[in-house]
Design goal:
396 residues, alpha/beta, FAD/NAD(P)-binding domain, 3 domains, seven-stranded mixed sheet, 13 helices
Length: 396
């Protein structure tokens, strides 16, 4: 089903929406909301997906880097892949760099607009009612208020799912505690010829991107996605412009947004459930939320289907949160500890650490065991390495 047809569904449904009750209303048609809607519809549930975008233009706030396992989890194939990434250059604050290279692809650079479009089309093909260009306004018990072109209407569902991003309005309306640990992420697209077409570039240092990092990711031919994230919210734009200027990069339009790097204290409240960035299900080490969010859709689907089909009380929905925290949530917790440890390092220590890591054996371990979705795995491999710790003792 094409997007233009999906878009017309709103007009068709508007006539009968007052008489149609949904078992689940999902607010947010990004990858997480679309995949969850599809999974639920495949189990026979009546699902409405509400998405504020009316078309899928490049969302340059997203770097579009995902792992092969993440692509598989989405259910899509390589039709959305622009290029394969086998390694990268990691730069210390003083410019010293190490090169990490794998024999197999570690990441894919995806066409994010097409990725989103195909997922939402699949949801519609599965039987989900998809309303594009519709803005969530407010929540009243089991009723969702929706606006489109100045017109307002309500639709009723037994369960409301907020998949509407870090600034989730569903979470705000339902009274969830806010996410306080956030970054400002900024990104643009520039003409760029990388040293290697299958490498990304990562830049570390408080002088560059305090408490996070900057990146250059090759995308389409002759183009790179350049971005930076930091916890210095007010100064983020200044750091980003400085990063671009020092590398003589000419930006197109700059996009920005908040990146949650902690999970909410709870994901469920009454008949409202949060998922993806709305729940803070984001990797603290990279700011990526697609893989943790897709993992959450598997867990949430099991809980929601049973909740609806067996008529269970709302308190059963907390099972989703417990399962998530005991599985992928535990990896994110380890990632948070790693991020806090890295944030304590000043630029001189970072310069030293990259020199220590620049050893063939160490680089091979990083290349073999480095995993964007499970970064703790490579840390566990490096911890027993005496070469790392003995050289670290020489730091003055």
């Amino acid at each position: 089903m094409s997007i233009s047809i999906v878009d017309r569904l709103f007009t068709i449904s508007l006539v009968n929406m007052g008489s149609k009750l949904y078992e689940v209303i999902v607010v947010g048609g990004g990858p997480i909301g679309s995949v969850l809607s599809t999974r639920l519809a495949q189990h026979g549930l009546r699902v409405l997906l509400v998405e504020r975008r009316s078309s899928f233009t490049p969302p340059f706030r997203c770097t579009g880097l995902i792992s092969p396992r993440c692509l598989k989890l989405s259910g899509l194939g390589k039709e959305v892949v622009l290029r394969e990434i086998r390694g990268g250059y990691i730069y210390a604050p003083n410019g010293y760099s190490i090169q990490v290279e794998s024999t197999t692809p570690k990441l894919y650079v995806i066409d994010r607009p097409r990725f989103d479009k195909l997922l939402i089309e699949r949801a519609a093909d599965t039987g989900v009612d998809v309303w594009l260009g519709c803005k969530f306004v407010k929540l009243e018990d089991n009723k969702v208020w929706v606006a489109r072109h100045g017109s307002y209407t309500t639709v009723t569902g037994r369960l409301i799912v907020g998949a509407d991003g870090a600034n989730s309005k569903v979470a705000s309306c339902a009274g969830f505690p806010p996410i306080r640990n956030v970054l400002i992420g900024l990104q643009t697209v520039v003409p760029y010829r990388p040293k290697r077409d299958d490498f990304v570039e990562i830049f570390l240092g408080r002088s560059i991107a305090p408490n996070f990092f900057a990146w250059i990711v090759p995308a389409e031919d002759g183009v790179a996605r350049v971005g930076l994230a930091t916890d210095r919210i007010a100064a983020g734009y200044r750091y980003f412009m400085n990063f671009l200027q020092t590398r003589n990069l000419q930006p197109q339009s700059v996009r920005s947004g908040l990146i949650p790097i902690e999970t909410r204290r709870r994901f469920v409240q009454g008949n409202v459930l949060l998922i993806g960035d709305a729940a803070g299900q984001v990797k603290p080490t990279s700011g990526g939320g697609i893989y943790p969010g897709l993992m959450a859709t598997k867990l949430a689907t099991k809980v929601i289907v049973r909740y609806i089909s067996e008529g269970l009380p709302e308190r059963y929905l907390i099972t989703y949160e417990r399962w998530w925290r005991s599985t992928i949530g535990s990896e994110l917790k380890r990632g948070s500890l790693l991020r806090k440890a890295l944030n304590r390092l000043d630029d001189n220590i970072l310069n030293h650490i990259l020199k220590v890591l620049d050893h063939p054996h160490i680089l091979r371990l990083i290349a073999d065991y480095g995993d964007a979705d499970y970064p703790s795995r490579v840390v566990r491999k490096l911890l027993p390495e005496p070469a790392v710790w003995l050289q670290s003792l020489h730091f003055r």
